[in-house]
Amino acid sequence: MIISVSRRCDIPRFYFDWFLERLEAGFVETANPFNPRQVRRVSLLPQDAEVLVCWTRDPRSILIHGETLEKRGFRYYVMTTLTDYPAILEPRGPEKDRVIAAMEGLAARIGPDRLIWRYDPVFFSSITGGEFHLRNFRSLSQALGGTVRRVIISLFDSYRGPERRLAALEKNCSLSRPLLTGGPGRLLPEFRDLLAALGRIAQEAGMTVQTCAEPEECIPPDIAPGACIDGNLIEALWGIKSGKKDKNQRPHCRCVPSVDIGAYGPCPAACVYCYARRDPPPSGSAPMGQSPGAPGRIPG
Description:
Blueprint: E1 2-5, H1 11-14, H2 16-25, E2 27-32, E3 35-43, E4 51-56, H3 60-71, E5 76-81, H4 96-110, E6 115-122, H5 130-144, E7 150-155, H6 160-171, H7 189-204, E8 208-212, E9 224-226, H8 231-238, E10 259-260
Parallel strand pairs: 1-4, 1-10, 4-5, 5-6, 6-7, 7-8, 8-9
Antiparallel strand pairs: 2-3
Helix pairs in contact: 5-7
């Protein structure tokens, strides 16, 4: 069983102490996001949790505790999102230089194959246009050259929560979004052209680019569609066969099956475009994913 830590919230950045406690306990309870009353107990014993796939914007906790994880028999790899967008889009983003330093430390400890950079999502706006992405991506790729071998890129997808927050920014003239060609659910021609350019920049830095959950026919020929929960990588690293595509993910997602132990909620990072962020609960209500009698569920 592959454990996703986590698509729904940044456990390594904000809840790693809790995660270590759950590893010590040997289990975690995770609720179905579409039916909170449906709760599943997930084993976190090393013999059951074959691989931990960590998603984060700040891997410093993993750098500090990674050796402990390995001594206890856990296999893991780390995907670090680093976009360095303006603060209006990422109000509480971690400091770029500290993230890069932590990634360098992790690469030295676990090797670059177990460390993946995510430049995700690629968000087009009046303050993050094509020229911005070319400059920004080049700067980050040069800083990470030799530290990672793979960078994952995907286009911003529209969800109700982000659209509401972005509409508020557009209303007060903080930013605007250009009218792009293409339809809902399709990779835009503007993104295809940018993706080809980013691929060339990444190659100059010794990296390959892969896309996440984008239609294959819209991807430049020298860019590979890829997977974040990557069965090929897991088999290459540890010889573990992980099955076919996860049927619970988006149509163009190539991830293999995993169990996500996170919970959607009011993330402290507060990235405006984030699909997993939820509005804070009313005052006095129970925190995200936590209720009396359920100590194994993630706190909010």
